[in-house]
Amino acid sequence: MDEYRLHSEKIDIPKGAGPKGFLHTIEQILKLDRVQSIQIDARGNITYTRFVRDAAEDFNIGPKISFESLMPFACARNGVIQEIQVSPHHPTKAISKMFQRVSNERLFPAAFITGASTTLWDWLSTNDGLDVDNRDEFYGLPVLADRHLDDYVLLLAAAYGRGAGITEVQKTFKIIMPQRKEDALDRNSSTQGGNFAGGDPSGISSVGSLSRDANGATSPKAGGGGSGNRGGSSGAGPGSHS
């Protein structure tokens, strides 16, 4: 008969999961038998210890815990996503327009959401000469990275109450940023989509794409820049409404 032995496991909480991610993980740990301790470190990891008996069993529950429904983009898709037309050459004006839309809807901004390797900071530096040192916050709001979102997409999530969490988001406003520094500097490019927003595997399609004629002029293509199996180019992801 096997004897009890002490088993420990460290679980990494995705940064975008926020406080809900910690609570969700602790809840899953407490469902286990013979839990002895639960610790949270300064890096946002949870380590638990419990007694186990069957040495052949896989006791690690970390890979079995899903955080997908708690990630920022998933929370945004639960509400309404609206795309805003902006110029790729004036990022601060574009972001101001996002805040204006939030105010017009009588909502409160909750957080920015963007891709894991966002082009936001390069966009600001290239066009406005604005270098941001603290990239965890912007305009007093948290900047949440989500690997399911394209790096050239910037979302401003809004909720009914001031200081609301990402899971309380009701409406989200979206802009398309340049994919590359060259696109941000190209004054002949369109104000949106096209050269710096091609296909959008995230499910949030851009409003359109551009083609250049023999003289180098740009003209819009029909059909939008989104994936063909995700619908048109409304700018809203699955489950959202414009």
Q: In words, what does this structure look like?
A:
The chain is of the alpha+beta class and about 240 residues long. It has 2 domains: about 5-70, Alpha-Beta Plaits, CATH 3.30.70; about 70-185, hypothetical protein PF0899 fold (2-Layer Sandwich), CATH 3.30.2320. Helices cover about 20% and strands about 25% of the residues. It contains 5 helices and 11 strands. It has helices at about 20-30, 70-75, 90-105, 120-130, 180-185; strands at about 5-10, 35-40, 45-50, 80-85, 110-115, 135-140, 140-145, 155-160, 170-175, 210, 220. The strands form 3 sheets. The chain has a 6-stranded mixed sheet with strand order 4-9-8-5-7-6. Strands 1-3-2 form a 3-stranded antiparallel sheet, with helices on one face. The longest helix is centred in the middle third of the chain and has 14 residues, at about 90-105. The radius of gyration is 22 Å and the shape is elongated. The termini are far apart. Residues about 185-240 have low confidence and may be disordered.
